[in-house]
Amino acid sequence: MSQNDSLKQELLDTDDEYRRLFEEHQNYERRLETLHQKSFFSEEDEQEEKRIKLQKLRLKDRMQSILRNHQESGVSANTV
Fold first, then answer.
1. Radius of gyration of the chain (CA)
2. What is the pTM of this model?
3. Could you tell me which residues come within 8 angstroms of residue 23 by beta carbon, excluding any fewer than 6 positions away?
């Protein structure tokens, strides 16, 4: 496991906001998978797909920001 993966896991275990963002991101990923299983992809489905992808990106950006802040501070997530 890389140092980055280790910090991500530590944040999942100790940081409520990071864990919430991660769980939301996973929920959106499951919704995308469900959407892609449809045999017919309507215009509404395309709009939903775009909306979900945008939400996922926002969540991932915020998670990356939290991760970067912890890396830059050199502080273990356990002390947060």
1. 16
2. 0.83
3. none
Token pair listed for 13: 């275990």
Q: Give the model's pLDDT for residue 80.
A: 44
C-beta of residue 63 within 8 angstroms of C-beta of residue 23:
no
- The tens digit of pLDDT for each residue in 36-54 reads 999 898 999 999 999 999 9
Q: CB-side exposure of 80: number of CA atoms within 13 Å?
A: 20
Distance between first and last Cα of the chain: 22
CA distances from 77 to 19, 23, 24 (A): 12, 18, 20
